[in-house]
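Internal ticket #5521
Category: modeling
Description: The requester needs a full-assembly model to guide mutagenesis choices. All entity lines are attached below as received. Residue total reported by intake: 806.
Assigned to: D.W.
Attached entities:
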Amino acid sequence: MPETSKRGQIMPASPIRKLVPLANKAKERGVKVYQLNIGQPDLPTPQAGLDALKHIDRKVLEYSPSEGLRSLREKLADYYHRFNIDVDVDDIIVTTGGSEAVLFAFMACLDPGDEIIVPEPAYANYMAFAISAGAKIVTVPSSIDEGFALPPLEKFEALITPRTKGILICNPNNPTGYLYTMKEMLQIRDLVKKYDLFLFSDEVYREFCYTGAPYISAFHLPGVEQNVVLIDSVSKRYNECGIRIGAIITKHKELKQNVMKFCQARLSPPLLGQIVAEASIDAGADYMLMTYNEYVERRKFLIDGLNRIPGCYSPIPMGAFYTVVSLPVDDADRFCEWCLNDFEYEGATVFMAPASGFYTTPGMGKREVRMAYVLNKADLGHALKVLTEALRAYPGKTAEAPQ
Amino acid sequence: MPETSKRGQIMPASPIRKLVPLANKAKERGVKVYQLNIGQPDLPTPQAGLDALKHIDRKVLEYSPSEGLRSLREKLADYYHRFNIDVDVDDIIVTTGGSEAVLFAFMACLDPGDEIIVPEPAYANYMAFAISAGAKIVTVPSSIDEGFALPPLEKFEALITPRTKGILICNPNNPTGYLYTMKEMLQIRDLVKKYDLFLFSDEVYREFCYTGAPYISAFHLPGVEQNVVLIDSVSKRYNECGIRIGAIITKHKELKQNVMKFCQARLSPPLLGQIVAEASIDAGADYMLMTYNEYVERRKFLIDGLNRIPGCYSPIPMGAFYTVVSLPVDDADRFCEWCLNDFEYEGATVFMAPASGFYTTPGMGKREVRMAYVLNKADLGHALKVLTEALRAYPGKTAEAPQ
């Protein structure tokens, strides 16, 4: 039997999805599983998007252009202009979800052995895509005690080597919900400029900022317009994750050409998803406000509830729909598995993503989990109750205050 | 401005799509462009697939499982059983088009520097995906004079090094239309077994075999069940290329686990495409027969027509819907560009894929193009007329017989 690649062997299993088989087994046993592990909102897809499907009058569902439908790219340009992001249609390339945008950004910017610096905890799949590209993610730990603010810039600078090609930020942040301030963004800008690095900026959650503090796009930063590689997702924004539509936006001409070669190799992003995405962008302010208000409520409800559980601590997330929570347990990986395998309360259990998979520094996040507040308040309430009981019953609970 | 990756720089532009900007310019000038460059059939998507879209009653277009919807995988298993391919639901992983199946197969099997041997001409994007994975494609030239039959096995064996990890075949073949015989497949099997290699087998066009000779799947070969990595496309089969649904099929347990990590990183294949694909598999024998008969007619019409043009030669393709044609020109790349830039006949021109991009051996395919017979007979007739006139007018035509 031939041996598989070392790359495949060292690829981390997704911390978000690796416990799915255990969750499925729990469901087979008849246990209700509250899914806090994944950013799969239960909110409705815009009706305009669903209607667009019903009104398709094509006889052939053909390939789209490799860079995406022009009409969608035009709508996206208008959308970005509303956020004072000064990009042109030709700066926008449609991808198969934000996932492909990250993969192609790495493939087109990084060679094997190249390094990018990322504050951790960080979205776990960045690591997976970096391994796919043979590149190395170097992390700067941020701390739950400081609400996951940007670590001091000296810590980034200390990690710069001749192989450093970029800095990656996610703003608002997945998994922490942190929103970078203008001061922090300008610090990043200075570093990017000083070392002429790429600035990979994942801004998928820009619509979801809750504290009144402004969302700062990497494209708002003067002087690094050619360095910014903006990662976006349309499907995530409009509660239609399954349509798999994202975008990669850059003004760097050679980079655009390189990305297009990867796009041409995979021929076309999904046609149907593009049709739904285009209609969804017109969903209107009411729809976005409904979604936004719902997250505001859920966020308050979940975070308040978590911080009332003895030994639990969650900073108050400022954006996105995730939070990283410290739990009074010996090992959050073990605890999450235990919840699915060995525990139920009133016929239910909780499915959380162990935070260890969002760190590369060994031992970090050992007592943390990521939760997505993508369930309605009633379900979140039940989930909090189940979590409280699980923490009471778990054999590996710790009395000490969480770190 | 930061420098892009060498990987991106050496990535070949797709020979199928790189001339699209020239074609678009021709269209802007009002020229009718006959698109023979790309395997985008004009035949209708099955009505059952289109209807499935209209009947979607979901309120949320959510992620599917990373491995694809179970109901689709079950239908696919049944489908393969009809071809005596003995695979289980759990051997099937749904991908975003056949493209992603190739990428993930390479990522999960090959490390940077690893080699796979491929008869050429070969589907150009194999090269692109190999470069993405840092792997090396080593080619064995097949010859138009021998109808692109499998080159002698000694030529493969001579290229085997300690880094050789696999052999890749496409059967029926894109771009040549060649259909490998049982004798040839057993020769490949023997080599795969002797050196314990992966056998990547792209069998996207299995429904389209025209000569009565049987389609031999790599899974029909005894003794290499663990070595076979079957690449498939659902969207291509049912004239719905834009839905982006393919599959990777393997019985190699560790490989399945590795592929799943790449699948989890990109979260989910397109949900809507899976819904259409599932309905399309039920399109029925009538639909497939209609498609099949249409290609039989077009194939005969195109190949006869090509072989009547002075200096042109096309072998008779046995399967798929492509052929590689030798033209009486100095340089097919230049000729294809010239057709789009500088030529029209009665307001029309032809868009062909230069074959040089399907070879890695320098100089090979210099006078060849790939044509896809995905247009109706009337259009193919016009395209043949335009090609005839283009060959008369082209400044770089050659009198000599093509090689």
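Resolution: model delivered.
Comment from assignee: The longest helix of chain B spans residues 285-308.
Ticket closed.
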